[in-house]
Known about the structure:
Layout: H1 2-14, E1 34-37, E2 42-44, E3 52-58, H2 63-79, E4 84-90, H3 95-104, E5 111-113, H4 118-123, E6 130-134, E7 140-145, H5 151-164
Parallel strand pairs: 3-4, 4-5
Antiparallel strand pairs: 1-2, 1-5, 3-6, 6-7
Amino acid sequence: MRHFIATLVLAAVAGSVPTAHAAVTVQASAPDFTLRSTEGRNLRLQEQRGQVVLINFWASWCGPCKQEMPHLNRLHDKYRSAGLVMLGVNIDDDTKLGAATAVRWGLRFPVLLDADKAVTRQYDLGAMPATVLVDRDGRVRYLHRGYREGTEETYERQIRELVKE
Length: 165
């Protein structure tokens, strides 16, 4: 577990990880998953088909995650009526900590709990935070590893493109 966390921290500092290690690739179908939300409901990715989906993997201990959350809230509010579904996948071991952090950070989109890291391993993006944009047909269109100031502008451009399709 320490090696996994160290890898994520190093990747976040570096800003990216080589794509050869990613289980998820652009133009491939997004791997389906079902996770429990902080509200207690199960949410399945495949049930979002027909919507543009932004999946953001994050943790309470991740500084860049906290930095990007206000931008994700803004994008969620701006584009949800155009067909964007935003899903935050929290990877904290303690689900109560993940849920409390989501409240403390004021997240306005669904937060899903992946304490056992099954979905995180399935997507294998190797960075924290990591963001996947999925088109209305369920295909991965964009992958982002890490966060740097200004990345939200790229997210917005890509979201606008996908919701217009």
